[in-house]
Write a structure and sequence with these properties.
Helix content: 40-55%
Distance between the termini: 10 Å
Order of helices and strands: EHHHHHEHHEHHEHHE
Oligomer: single chain
Number of helices: 11
């Protein structure tokens, strides 16, 4: 089965500021739900390319109850208009399984391939009041972002790789080259984070 992976750059400050402001507006949760539903039905190709990979319930379920139950889903959907498409890893699984053969710890390789927990992104940028509402609803499988430091550190390690490590492992050369190119492109926007989704 073919795996689809896409990546975008996100300005986390702008997105979280706007998300928090809409949630605090007179429309509150209803305004957030309605905005998420509007984005879900958007014809914008960038929005569509992101939304179609999200694992969320969708507007039919959202209309049944306007409550915090769906707040994390709306948070994810509402990132869509803030995203700028960028290169993605050709094979996150090859990065996850290949980097440990080159000296990475398995957890580090997994983080580079799948990203950090989405909750950690929210914790960096949202106030405690909103976080208290979101935290219980985040799952541990909701990953998909790396910050500028993650990318710079990964590039530094990739640059320092000993060529001898590739003896008998030539299949890892294109994996490392691809990761280097993806991470290098993402570092051109140091105030953004790299967001990835894999289906």
């Amino acid at each position: 089965m073919a795996v689809t992976t896409r990546a975008w750059m996100l300005d986390p400050v702008e997105f979280h500021r706007d998300f928090e402001a809409l949630l605090a507006s007179p429309g509150g949760l209803v305004a957030v739900r309605d905005r998420a539903a509007e984005l879900w039905d958007s014809d914008d190709p960038v929005v569509r390319s992101y939304v179609e990979l999200l694992v969320v319930s969708g507007p039919e379920d959202w209309r049944c109850a306007c409550e915090d139950t769906h707040l994390v889903e709306w948070y994810q959907v509402m990132m869509a208009p803030y995203l700028i498409p960028t290169r993605s890893l050709r094979s996150p699984d090859a990065v996850r399984s290949g980097l440990p053969l080159l000296g990475w710890h398995a957890a580090e390789a997994r983080r580079l391939a799948r990203g950090r927990e989405l909750l950690a992104l929210a914790e960096r940028h949202l106030g405690e009041g909103v976080l208290d509402r979101l935290r219980p609803r985040f799952g541990w499988s909701q990953k998909g972002w790396l910050d500028h430091d993650d990318l710079v550190d990964a590039l530094d390690r990739l640059r320092r790789l000993d060529r001898q490590l590739f003896k008998g492992r030539s299949e890892l050369v294109p994996v490392v080259e691809d990761a280097f190119e993806v991470f290098e492109a993402a570092t051109t926007k140091p105030d953004h984070v790299l967001v990835t989704l894999t289906e």
